[in-house]
Amino acid sequence: MRVAVLCNTAEEGEFLREDIAYADDAIANAQRIARTFDSCGHRAETIMVRRATLEKQLLQLKGRIDVVFNLTESVGLGLVLRVIKKLEEFNIPYAGANYHGHLLTSNKLRMKRVLVAHNIPTPTFK
User: Fold this and answer.
1) Residue 17 and residue 116: Cα distance in Å, rounded?
2) Per residue in 87-117, pLDDT tens?
3) In principle, which of 11, 45, 76, 94 could form an S-S bond with 68, CB 3.0–4.6 Å?
4) Which residues partner with 43 through β-bridges?
5) What are the φ and ψ backbone dihedral angles of 7, each rounded to 5 degrees?
6) What separation, in Å, do the N-terminal and C-terminal C-alpha atoms of the chain show?
7) What is the Cα–Cα distance from 29 to 77, expressed in whole angstroms?
8) Are 105 and 111 a contacting pair, CB within 8 Å?
9) Measured at the alpha carbon of residue 70, what is the angle toward residues 109 and 66, in degrees to the nearest 5?
10) What's the rounded Cα separation, in Å, for the pair 6 and 63?
């Protein structure tokens, strides 16, 4: 299987200076995941996503990879959701929640309201 593991720098994710180490750790995790795929006999590559060239980067994957692992991170989900939307638009297979699922589950208040509306017990909140 041919796998692309997407990640991004703190700058691309618009992280605050104090969160740069978090973004660096996410990049290291993406590289470890790619190496693990390789060690299992698959062909994996880590791709550093850039906002300015995102569409071109993703289109270059089409037909060249079998699945994308989207490990992009961003403040406010802007980059993450844009990546998912483009993967869907370009019909590129990826692991994880679709655009609407990611949007819903990434908003704790919205998710809490959905659970409560379906009578699923959740702790109280303010």
Assistant:
1) 37
2) 999 999 999 889 988 888 777 888 888 888 9
3) 94
4) 2
5) -150, 180
6) 46
7) 19
8) yes
9) 140
10) 16
CA distance 84 to 86: 5
Count Cβ neighbours within 10 Å for each residue of 3-27 and write b for 16 or more, e otherwise. Answer: bbbbbbbbebbbbeeeeeeebeebb
> Is residue 75 within 8 Å of residue 15, measured between CB atoms?
yes
Enter the tokens of residue 100.
């609407």
Token look-up 């994308």 returns: 68
At position 107, the amino acid (one-letter code) is N
Question: What are the tens digits of pLDDT across the range 37-87?
Answer: 999 999 999 999 988 999 999 999 999 999 999 988 876 678 889 999 999
How far is 45 from 17, CA to CA, in rounded Å?
27
